[in-house]
Amino acid sequence: GVLMQFDKTHGDALWTYGFERFADEIASTRVRTNINSGATSVRAPRFPNGSTMGSKGAFIALDYYGIERLDIQAGLRHSRFSVKLPPVPGVGIGIDIAPKQTTGNLGLRYELTEHVNFVANIGRGFRAPNVFDLGAFGSRPGNRFNEPNGALEPEIIDSIDTGLKWSSERWQGEAYVFKSRYQDKITSLENGDRTPAGQIIVRNVNATQLDLYGIELMSRYQFNDKT
Questions:
Q1: Is the pLDDT assigned to residue 82 strictly greater than 80?
Q2: What is the pLDDT of residues 111-165, one digit of tens each?
Q3: Does the CA dihedral 144-146-151-155 come out positive or negative?
Q4: Averaged confidence pLDDT in the chain
């Protein structure tokens, strides 16, 4: 992979921008050995051998500090993934998808006093299906059989948080509340059918919505100048 990032100051703003490129390839084999006789037999690999996953991304971020006591941060990112799985022997299904998404965030920090800042952030992120989500074919624990799903979409998460940060000569602390909502979260579901051997057929699908709420607290005290 390669990542390039650049910074430029213009007036009361700091701009950060760049791009990245990553590529992964999987080599996967599986052999079963009889520990009594020593006989071996080749089995289908855990993931399709030769599967690849690549990603490209470009981003830009702004840190604007031209307003007294206020710091504004914003960013945009465009990402594109390419996931390719070759046909699996015995299954005969390959997958080639290229999900893409533009995400962003907006945050601010306001200086309430010399030692206390109010902070707030809102943003969106996403996670593209990976080889694990797409390539878990065949028999699985619990008498299950996983069938492929080449129509998987990315998971989307929207988050918001707000809180206070304070600091003094020796004390530092943070207190936040946050909420996150996952959409199209990938989960494994039964389709109601069974294989000829009686295994329950399941597949990964975008079927779950999940809300997370929380409080986050942190405090740190410096006892002396060395610790």
A1: yes
A2: 999 999 999 999 999 999 988 888 767 777 788 888 878 788 899 999 999 999 9
A3: positive
A4: 90
The position carrying tokens 């607290």 is 217
Phi/psi of residue 12, nearest 5 degrees: -95, 25
The H or E element that residue 76 is part of is strand 70-85
What's the token pair of residue 178?
A: 């946050």
Long-range residue pairs from 214-217, CB within 8 A, at least 24 positions apart, any chain: 214/177, 214/178, 214/179, 215/175, 215/176, 215/177, 215/178, 216/163, 216/174, 216/175, 216/176, 216/177, 216/178, 217/173, 217/174, 217/175, 217/176
Does the pLDDT at position 170 exceed 90? no
DSSP string, 125-162: EEE---HHHH---EEETTTEEEPP-TT---EEEEEEEE
Structure tokens at 35: 């520990």
